Amino acid sequence: MNAYVGTPTSRVDGRAKVTGTAKYAGEFPADGLVHGFVVEATIPCGRIARLDTSAALNVNGVLDVLTHANRPPLADNDEAWKDEVAPEKGSPFRPLYDDTIKFNGQPIALVVAEDWETAKFAATLVRVEYEPSGFATDLEGERGSAAETDEPPKPRGDAAAALARAAVRHEADYVIPTEHHNPMELFATTAVWDGGGKLTVYDKTQGVQNVHKFLCGVFDKKPSDIRVISPYVGGAFGSGLRPQHQVVLATLAALALKRSVRVVLTRQQMYGLGYRPMTIERVGLGAKSDGTLEAVTHEAIAVTSRYEDFARNDTGWAEQLYSSPNSRFSHKLVHLDVSTPCDMRAPGAASGVCALECAMDELAVALKIDPIDLRLNCYSDRDQSENLPYTSKQLRECYARGAEAFGWSRRNPAPRSMHDGNELVGWGMATGVWEALQMPVAVRIVLTSNGHAEVSCAASDIGTGTYTIVAQVAADALGLPIENISVRLADSTLPQAPVEGGSWMAASSAHAVLAAAEDVRKELLSLAGKMPGSPLADAELADTVLIDGSIARAADNSRAVSIADAMRHGNIERIAKEKVNQFDEDKKHARNTHSAVFAEVKIDEQLGVIRVTRIVSAVAAGRILNTKTGRSQIMGGVVWGIGMALHEETVMDHRFGRIMNANIAEYHIPVNADVHDIDVIFVDEPDAHINKLGVKGLGEIGIVGVPAAIANAVYHATGKRIRRFPITLDKLLG
Ligand code: MOS
């Protein structure tokens, strides 16, 4: 039955990707295609007093310059601009809507020309006069204005009092800077004018139906007027969850000019989109001298824009991990003159758990106990905020397997005690946690009598491997070789799917495939059962399987009818079934994935150079559908964790409210030379509650815990505790 699920199946789209036949949003051709280049505001707050486009319009090849003053109509109400992942509170940004400037880098004009270079040149000739207003962009400077948002997890006991009287106490601020996603593929849209007002929009997005509904609202179009397609995404990591402004601009220009328009943002312009918000994470931990927790407090202060409240759960993760009779959490926002932050891999957890896990390490040092022992002392078998058991939680096993593979027992706990030649060696560890979510997803299977099946769904594959796991699950469920399965994704006309994010798509799409495949089998049984002398004459659906191109009795696969025979007998060429995944909104269990991360760093103390020489990540995430793509996914998260620990930081000049390092030369990300040994261990975690296959999802868990494990290793190597990320050599030498 499971020829493919659980195996290291290679990506079914691998060949298309490495041969370049896989097309991305900015690559689709169109007759008479023209190109738009975005002009951006250079002040963070105020209004446009005058916009002079005449010099740009005089350039040969320039067709138009769209601004708030001459654009076609755009919706005038927030509802139309709210996409499925927009923050509840606030008023979404509307590109080229009016003369207001809300953030530095805001698009204020689109130059459209016959070719991209001309548009880019002419954009430099657009003259803007501003009426600037006072502004603030510095989170730490504006910390005093932080105000509580939403509802954090319920407090338990009296955390402040318990913290005050704890035998051993640790309290500190950890600062996570603003970070940008920097996917390899630039944000791009090719809006193809199909005549008569209809558009086919090739867009880089994590959700084609989200963009489709959004465009229909913003441009007051019928659903049939616009089709959104995004077959491949070169990384997005959350930056493509909400419709980005280039899709509005390309669509606007196509409607204005009645021709096909492409808008590709530059790397610099990508920094005008969303980002991981800077946060100040204040964590307090109180323990008894025996090393059990008495109190956990965690307050996050995060940046958001003036126009939307973006907030994620940074602080509640201790409720999943560490048993404590008293706890208090809060999430506060500071409104600044910047664009709205957005989700970025493991939003909330990547930052909040980083702080929590550094604090746990500091507490272990204060208690003079091993950091794993501290975590085992307060291991929680329940989600304390809801007081629920887990569908499954093999975190203990993660600690054990990870420690074993890493060689943790050989660690000398004293800081500065381990060396390799001239380098100090540090070993640190941390816990990771994320949610195991599911969403309604519909899948259509069309089985043809030649034993081929097309499986389709509007979900995107953002590089995580959706094409492959959908093909694997379908091949197993239909009893066909994987070569006979073709998967179509990311077209807004396909069966409904939410944005691909939150680590929910693997479990959701896999179970939609199973549900649709069951309907296919049902129809095959009704055909096969009616054949004269059928070996399936009185078979119940539950007693049948699809295997080797046939429908067979589960108990005896030799009693079978081939798909071809059954369909020929029924005189049909194809069976088409569409189904939504069924999942139980089980309120009796908490659902999470977990990990234990172990890091080794080697540090040249004279130079301050830190190398992350080894990472072991032991992950418990239910059944792993594909051990090859799954391992890649975790490795990617680990590499990003190295970036978060040591490299990544968006730097703003607060005198101008402008990002200073909007490029990947000065915004540092890990390169191959920064990445050494990464060992990914999948801990066996059977889960009978979460869904039929016991799948939880791997999209985000890979990054969580990694930065803290590295920071803790840096402390162990040097005796220096750096609480302001990234840990750069100046901080180590300072
Ligand atoms: Mo993810 S940050 O939900 O793409």
Structure description:
The chain has 734 residues and is of the alpha+beta class. It has three domains: 19-134 and 183-266, Aldehyde Oxidoreductase, domain 3 (Alpha-Beta Complex), CATH 3.90.1170; 276-437 and 587-733, Aldehyde Oxidoreductase, domain 4, CATH 3.30.365.10; 439-580, Aldehyde Oxidoreductase, domain 4, CATH 3.30.365.10. The strands form eight sheets. It has a seven-stranded mixed beta sheet, with helices on both faces. Helix 13 (466-478) packs parallel to helix 14, helix 14 (505-529) crosses helix 15 (563-569) and helix 16 crosses helix 17 (706-718). It is globular. 56% of the residues are buried. The model has no long low-confidence stretch (mean pLDDT 97). The protein binds dioxothiomolybdenum(VI) ion. Dioxothiomolybdenum(VI) ion is lined by residues 206, 237-238, 241, 343-345, 347, 501-502.
User: What sort of overall outline do the alpha carbons produce when their principal axes are compared?
Assistant: globular
* First and last CA, distance: 60 Å
Question: Which class best fits the helix and strand makeup?
Answer: alpha+beta
Rounded to the nearest angstrom, the radius of gyration is 27 Å
Report the portion of residues in β strands. 25-35%
Count of runs of 4 or more consecutive helical residues? 18
What fraction, in percent, of the residue positions are helical?
A: 10-25%
Question: Largest beta sheet, briefly?
Answer: 7 strands, mixed
Which consecutive residue ranges, at least 5 long each, have pLDDT under 50? none
Known CATH architecture of the largest domain? 2-Layer Sandwich
What is the average of the pLDDT values? 97
The CATH homologous superfamily of the largest domain corresponds to Aldehyde oxidase/xanthine dehydrogenase, molybdopterin binding domain
Fold-level CATH name of the largest domain: Aldehyde Oxidoreductase, domain 4
CATH class of the largest domain: Alpha Beta
Number of discrete domains: 3
